[in-house]
Amino acid sequence: MNAVTGHAAPPALEVRGLTSGYGGREVLSALDLALPQGEVLCLVGHNGAGKSTLLKLLFGLHQASAGTIHLRGRTIQPRPDAMAREGVAYVPEGRGVFPGLPVRDNFALALWSARLQGAEAEARTEEVLTVLPRIREFWTRRAGQLSGGQQQMVSIGRALLSRPSILLLDEPSIGLAPKTFQDLMAPIRALQQKLDMSILLVEQNVGEAFAASDRVAVMKSGRMIFNGVPADLSDHARLMEMF
Ligand SMILES: Nc1ncnc2c1ncn2[C@@H]1O[C@H](COP(=O)(O)OP(=O)(O)OP(=O)(O)O)[C@@H](O)[C@H]1O
Known about the structure:
There is one protein chain. This protein is 35% helix and 26% strand. It has a single domain, classed as Rossmann fold. The strands form two sheets. Strands 6-7-8-3-9-10 form a six-stranded mixed beta sheet, sandwiched between helices. It has a four-stranded antiparallel beta sheet with strand order 2-1-4-5, covered by helices on one side. The longest helix has 18 residues, at 178-195. The chain is an alpha/beta fold. The chain binds adenosine-5'-triphosphate. The site of adenosine-5'-triphosphate (ATP) has 10 residues, from helix 1. InterPro entries: AAA+_ATPase, ABC_transporter-like_ATP-bd, ABC_transporter-like_CS, BCAA_Transport_ATP-bd_LivF, P-loop_NTPase. One of its GO terms (biological process) is L-amino acid transport.
């Protein structure tokens, strides 16, 4: 039994005492956080709190100056290629697509990097297009010509093609109307439950994000100030106090 999460399985990802920054300026200060296996954890916090930095550290795109990172109970030093091989997918904030290529080719490249071919690649593509059916509407259009929200969908769709066991999602609601964000999260939530995926979701759009999450963690100035279930933050005033 894990002392922090109360779960029998080790957390999908966990950081202990993680400290990091940029050019001598500390951005994360002795941070502790666990993403329980098979759960959606929503990480919120004001602009500049260090949420994106944490995701970058977890995927090996930035380095910690102190602390440890654990993948399914094992201490690791993340590197993007090794994390991808471990079934971790990272969808950065913004538009993580190849703008000059049609959506279809954006998918083809993701299938190629996940070493998926033939019938298996087709089945995976169908699975993702069933989860995010609106992608079919712009399947042959160049990704760079799509709206921010449509590009966000393509970016998440590409990540789902590899059927990640852990998904790191940085502000997927950016550029999306609240209703569109709900339409995006609901099928992802269903797939997450079906595949027992663990998702770390960084979001500002708390209402919609909490509805799709099992747990919520709140960061302030590089520190974790709250970790609990969304219902604990249903008191709006309490949540606002934290920002
Ligand atoms: N590459 C970088 N070089 C220098 N400083 C950086 C860099 N990336 C982020 N920072 C700084 O680190 C701090 C934390 O940034 P980070 O992007 O992790 O916060 P965030 O919580 O994700 O914010 P937001 O919600 O605005 O995306 C900010 O003060 C930011 O300016």
